[in-house]
Structure formats: C-alpha cells, structure tokens
Amino acid sequence: MCGIVAYIGPRQAYPILINGLKRLEYRGYDSAGLALYNNGLNIYKTKGKVSDLERHAKDKHIHGSIGIAHTRWATHGEPNDTNAHPHASQSYSIALIHNGIIENYALLRRELENRGYSFRSTTDTEVLTNLIEDIKINEDVNLFEAVRIALNQVVGAYAIVVMESGNPDMLVAARKGSPLVIGIGNGEFFVASDATPIIEYTKNVVYLDDEEVALVHRNNELKIKTIRNKEKTPYIHQLEMSLVALEKGGYEHFMLKEIYEQPISIRDSMRGRIHPESGTVTLGGIIDYEQKILNADRIIIVACGTSWHAGLVGEYLIEDLARIPVEVEYASEFRYRNPIISEKDVVLAISQSGETADTLAAIELAKSKGATILGICNVVGSSIARATHAGSYTHAGPEIGVASTKAFTAQVTLLTLFALRFAQLKGTISRSRFNQIITELTLIPNKVERTLKTCKNVVLETAEQFRDVRNFLYLGRGYNFPVALEGALKLKEISYIHAEGYPAAEMKHGPIALIDEDMPVVFIAPKQGIYDKVVSNIQEVKARKGKVIAVVTEGDTVVKNLADYVIEIPDTEEILVPLLATIPLQKLAYHIAVMRGCNVDQPRNLAKSVTVE
Ligand code: AGP
C-alpha cells in the first residue's frame, strides 16, 4: 500500500527521498510525489512509477534539506496527478502525505467548504491538510499543535507527515492504524512507513504508537505526544535488518530470490527452537502463555491471504498432533460477523507484514472479549507484533516480492514447532514419534534445496506449455488442500490467469464441469495420506481429457503413468509435505508470469501490506 519517506537534516533531501521511494516500491502503488522546501514549497507529483516522478522533477528546483515523499495506492479518487500526494493546503502553506483512510472526510470537507475552502482533488487527504491549516489559523497554534488537534476530529486510519513553508526546520508525523518509523541519524531524522528506506542511514529507530504525534526538528529535537496531549518518552530500538536483504542479489526478481532463500529462511525459523539433546522444542516468545494455551477451549487462527493458507496447515497440524480444537478464520470476516469469543479462547494472528488492517481489527475485537492474543509475524516491531500479548517471529528476513513465498514456508515451519511443543506438553505424542518428526524437520531445508534444483526443467517445460491458458485448477487433500489454495493464489496474483484451489474430492461437486482438454489441473499427489483417493481423482480428470500436472514423491510410478507432467519432491513425513510441495508451485507461477511479461514483484492492483480495509 502507500509508502512514506521524509527527511530533515544537513543533506540534500531529494536523493534520499527518491531512493527511499524506490525501496518502498514493493508495497504497491499507482502514483508518486514529493515536496521540498527551497524558498517556499515545491511539490512534484505524477501518476505512474517513481521513475516517472524522477523524469517529471528533472530540471526543476529539487534543492532543499527538508522534504516529504509518497507512493500512493488509490483508495479515494482515481490514480492521477492531482490525487497523488503530497497535498497542499488551500494557501499552499502546508504539505502533507498520508497513508490510510479518513472515514469522516465527507463531513469534514462539507464543514471546510462552508468556511470557504475549495478542493483541487477528490481525496480524503486534502481534507485533512486543509483542516490542519484551518486550525492553525483560527486557533493560532503551531503546526505540531494544529496536527494534534485536527487528529482528534478524524475518524479512520492514518500515518501522516506534514511540513510547512513558514517553518522549514521541522516535520510533524503521526499515526493511527498505519505504521510509521522515525530514524534517528547524526543531526538528521528520517520518517518512513517501514524501516526499508532508513536502514542505510541509521539503525536507531523509534516506532510511533497509535494516536501519537511526533515533532522532529533540525536542532535535533524529537518530541512525542499523544493526540490527547500526553507527553511520551521516545523508546529507541536497534534495527536488525541488513541492507543486503533489500537487494536483488543478482536475481532477476525479488520473488525468485525469495523462493531460493527458503532453505535458509526455513532453517532460520527453526534456529534455537529445537533442542535435540533434551528432545524438546521451545518457542521463547510464548513461554509465559503455555498454560493458557493448554487450558484453552480452542485456538482461533485469524489471518488473510497466504497467511490464512498457512493457518489452515496450522489447523491440521495442531489438531493432529496436539489435539487442541482449532478454527481458522478470514480476519476480514471474523471482525464483522459477531463471533463467539471467550476468555478461554486463544487467538493466533498470522501475518508476514504485521500490518494487515483486517488482522489488526480481528485482534482488537478478540482482545476486547478477553481472549489471549498470540502472533506469528515476520516483521519485527510491526503493529500486529505489538498488538498481541505474546508471539514468535518467523525470521524469514524481509520479503519484498508482493507474492508471499518464503514467509509462507516460515509460517508453516513455526506452526509445526508450535504443534509439536503442545503435543509434547499435552502428552499426545510419543517420544519416538516426536523425535522422528524433528529429525525429518531438520532435513527439510536440504530437501527444499534439492527440490529447487530437480524441479527446474520440468517446471519450465510446464510453464511454456500452459503460459497462455485462461484457467487453472489446483487440487489436493488433507495437508495438501491448503497447498492447492496457495498454488492457485500464487498463479492468479502474478500471472493474472484465473486459478482455483479445491479439496480434490470436492471436484465432483462442481468444478468437474469445467474439465476439458483445455483445462490444466495441478494435483498435489505425494504418496503419503490418502494417495489412492487422489489417484482416483486424477483418473476422473484424465477421463474427461483434462491435462494433469502432478506433484509426486520421488520414485512414484502410478501417477507418472497417468499425468502429462510430473514434478518430483523428496519423500518426507506427511505433515511436512506442504513445505516441499509448495516450492514447485511457487516456481510454476513465477515462470508463467515471467513468460507472460507480467510485473512479477509488483503485480497490478496488489499491495504488499494491506493497511486499509
Ligand atoms: C500473498 O501472496 C498475498 N500478496 C497476500 O495474500 C498476503 O498474504 C495477505 O495480504 C496477508 O498479508 P500479511 O501476511 O502481511 O498479513
């Protein structure tokens, strides 16, 4: 979604802002803009990419040591030059960038129009800009106070940075429901919607909390207040992220790099959590909540998209091994459907970004009913990580490609450890079975590596064959039903081919009507689980002339004789198959998308962190 970068200090702001916007491109956007101060406000903005903004600003006044910049993902008003941020107030004295949605903007706009304001754009953001100007003039307060007072009138979500031409020595930033990080450099400050534009300048950061307003001044001052006027002491965190993790490192796309990083990211998710000497697994982050989990009536997993698919694998794992009832909910449905939640429930929120608006709202709802809230997040210090009572990080490293890959396998790895830990604590698993699974789990990174090598040619051949089809069906059973959903999601989001994931046995209850010689069907058909039943489903597709692409266990002969294309994965425990079977499906989606000329890392209409509803 939208991205924010701002700078104040001794250096030229323009290159820092442009560089920062490029780091934020992965979030998804459709226009870009910036404002600089140099004898007045200079605002440049355009529909399109950051490179279009660079072309637009070239040869213009781009000097100045204070500036704000933005990439916009349209919500209110179409993506065009006028609606792009920054927005200037009516008198052009204030410039503002904003992530989020001001829900009561129509009412505020009418009130401002009655007071003589007119608007250039159709955005909610311009309304907030003029509201701040109005308060500043009428209440005769400084910018910091004007922003604070204005935000008390706002309903909705925001991360904003504001600058004014009358005082080019300070920036004001604030957040509610949309993340904002302040980087503290040597005599300089950076503000951004995540740490990626900041990391190359400083590792010292302050994460703003909801309803906090910050002032950063050229004289090194950092002041934070709540919008209710309570002073706060800034707490400085050290970033652990490395700059190398934000580069493509020789790969053509971030997504491909991230697919190939999975042997490492899965290993990192397990690191320090498996103790072969004592035959135990620990998840340090939730250790204080183990008793709560053991006494819980049920675990409710809330998540969206790929994280929801990982949650489904988690349901199978936790019920299978630890015998604790689990429900998996789309956070977006859960938050609005008046669910029954009690103090004896444990809610487990799963999110790569830790910023997904629906997941955050689901957490708040469950919290208000007294449930214990745990999180599985990838981004350290993210809103979800901070909104939960406790949790575990996946340690997959920054995921830049919009299509989630290594975050999914890291989430599944962590859920496997979670299930094993509680199976052990509840005594629902024998020591020998536990050891068997742990041994296999530690072999998974090498097996992922092998899969990446061995599937290469057949995936390319399959991609070439099916690159121009209009539909795909993905089928799997048991642990591989969520894998089918995830395979279909990957394909549709980056190649724009319509793809459906289904439990294989459900095919005959509807989707079988779609099968003909033009319909490729991907079966996840490892030898484990209800293999024979899946073989029957394959036969049903072949009988109707469908094209079968099968992911099978190495050495399989039965499916090989039936399928048109066969992708082998190494043998493993049934419960660990998703960690291997997902790999070729990610690669299939990737290669088809590349062959179709799609923008793999920034697919159309999609955003990496979905910070609005
Ligand atoms: C995955 O490829 C998607 N881009 C998307 O479904 C994503 O998983 C979803 O928006 C949830 O995001 P989160 O894990 O950051 O909460």
Which helices and strands, and how do they pair?
Elements: E1 3-8, H1 13-23, E2 31-37, E3 41-47, H2 50-57, E4 66-72, E5 87-88, E6 94-99, H3 105-114, H4 124-138, H5 143-151, E7 158-164, E8 167-176, E9 181-184, E10 189-192, E11 204-207, E12 212-217, E13 222-226, E14 231-232, E15 237-238, H6 254-260, H7 262-270, E16 274-275, E17 280-281, H8 290-295, E18 298-303, H9 305-322, E19 326-330, H10 331-334, E20 345-351, H11 357-368, E21 372-377, H12 383-387, E22 390-393, H13 406-426, H14 431-454, H15 456-466, E23 471-476, H16 480-495, E24 498-503, E25 520-524, H17 531-543, E26 547-553, H18 558-562, E27 565-569, H19 577-595
Parallel strand pairs: 18-19, 18-20, 20-21, 21-22, 23-24, 23-25, 25-26, 26-27
Antiparallel strand pairs: 1-4, 1-10, 2-3, 2-4, 5-6, 6-7, 7-8, 8-12, 9-10, 9-11, 11-15, 12-13, 13-14, 16-17
Bound molecules: 2-deoxy-2-amino glucitol-6-phosphate.
2-deoxy-2-amino glucitol-6-phosphate (AGP) binds at residues 304-307, 351-353, 356, 359, 402-404, 493, 606, 609-610.
Task: Walk me through this protein's architecture.
With 613 residues, this protein is an alpha/beta fold. The chain is 36% helix and 23% strand. It is built from 19 helices and 27 strands. An 8-stranded antiparallel sheet has the order 3-2-4-1-10-9-11-15, with helices on one face. It has a 7-stranded antiparallel sheet with strand order 5-6-7-8-12-13-14, with helices on one face. A 5-stranded parallel sheet has the order 19-18-20-21-22, with helices on both faces. β18 (298-303), α9 (305-322) and β19 form a beta-alpha-beta unit. α3 (105-114) crosses α4 (124-138), α4 (124-138) crosses α5 (143-151) and α14 (431-454) runs parallel beside α19. The protein starts with a strand and ends in an 18-residue tail after the last helix.
